[in-house]
Write a structure and sequence with these properties.
It is a single chain. It is rod-shaped, with a radius of gyration of 36 Å. It has no helices and 26 strands. Helix content is about 0%, strand content about 45%.
Length: about 300
């Protein structure tokens, strides 16, 4: 008797005593079978789902015999196991209902900004999930600053969670610096779990940020002569920074102007309270400025001004 068992997708052979193995085909060549009930066994390991048809459905059949079988024909399995020399069984592999979400604190960034991504992994099912791996590969436009996890550990680009019980959640917080311009889709995805993921769950999420060109420009030459052209120190897009502060100094380091929330109205008037020339027009020449944007993340800008 030749008994065969073709392992389907979803199984990995561990051992099959007395059998010949050819890839995933297990074959027992049995010289003689005594009358009565006889059994053979083998051991497999359950693999993660591949989604292929017939996954976890295992069929054994008699492929050949020396004697004729009056009620079945060896080796003619057509998939329905309607003869008594063939049989199949489908394993039901428990599923975990995992939900993965990814959020970003802001959807518009500039070069140099720090951005915080928060990935939340939730088990909304009724059974624990084990050995979960979430992959999050940062694009080249990000530089990783720091990572915090509420459970598990992060290494390379993988977040590993050994166990997550029913109704529980874990978070991974990534703080990154934007190093280059461009719009980015950042993807987090569950790449492994001991359990299959229930179709009602969610194994991937995307957080999108848009790169915003820096429109802030200091037009550092102006002529406050009331001709209607360049009469004030103009900083383009300064209205986007209501907490800004502009300080201007002469070449000796004396402060001649200091205004929080600058509104493009300075006409080169000395605003130093300690100077005897306060409220007078400054003389033609070069001055220096410090511009603090007050957003808590952008470095101060410095440069020169020329008043004509």
């Amino acid at each position: 008797v030749l008994l065969i068992d073709q392992l389907p997708p979803g199984f990995e052979l561990v051992s099959a005593p007395g059998a010949d193995i050819n890839d995933n085909l297990i074959q027992w060549h049995i010289p003689e079978i005594p009358v009565g009930t006889n059994s053979l066994s083998y051991e497999v390991r359950i693999l993660p789902s591949t989604g292929l048809a017939g996954e976890y459905r295992n069929i054994a059949e008699i492929a050949a015999t020396d004697q004729a079988d009056p009620d079945s024909q060896p080796g003619n399995d057509d998939g329905d196991q309607d003869q008594d020399d063939e049989d199949g069984i489908a394993l039901t592999v428990p599923k975990a209902r995992l939900v993965l979400t990814k959020e970003v604190e802001t959807d518009e960034v500039r070069i140099g900004d720090s951005v915080t991504f928060t990935i939340t992994l939730s088990n909304t099912g009724d059974r624990e999930a084990t050995n979960i791996v979430v992959q999050d590969e940062l694009q080249s436009g990000y530089a990783l600053e720091s990572v915090f996890t509420s459970t598990g550990y992060f290494e390379g680009s993988s977040w590993s969670v050994p166990m997550l019980g029913p109704g529980l959640s874990g978070t991974l917080t990534m703080i990154v610096t934007v190093t280059d311009g461009g719009d980015y889709e950042n993807i987090a995805q569950i790449t492994y779990s001991d359990q299959l993921i229930d179709e009602a769950g969610q194994d991937m999420d995307i957080a999108i940020i848009n790169f915003k060109e820096d429109c802030l420009v200091v037009y550092n030459e102006f002529s406050p002569n009331d001709d209607g052209l360049n009469d004030v120190l103009y900083i383009e897009c300064i209205e986007e920074y209501p907490n800004s502060r502009l300080q201007v100094f002469d070449r000796w380091g004396s402060k001649v102007f200091d205004e929080p929330g600058y509104n493009n109205s300075w006409r080169g008037i000395n605003k130093s309270k300690s100077s005897y020339e306060s409220e007078k027009e400054l003389s033609t020449g070069t001055y220096f400025y410090i511009l603090s944007l007050g957003d808590g993340k952008t470095p101060d800008r410095t440069g020169w001004l020329y008043i004509s």
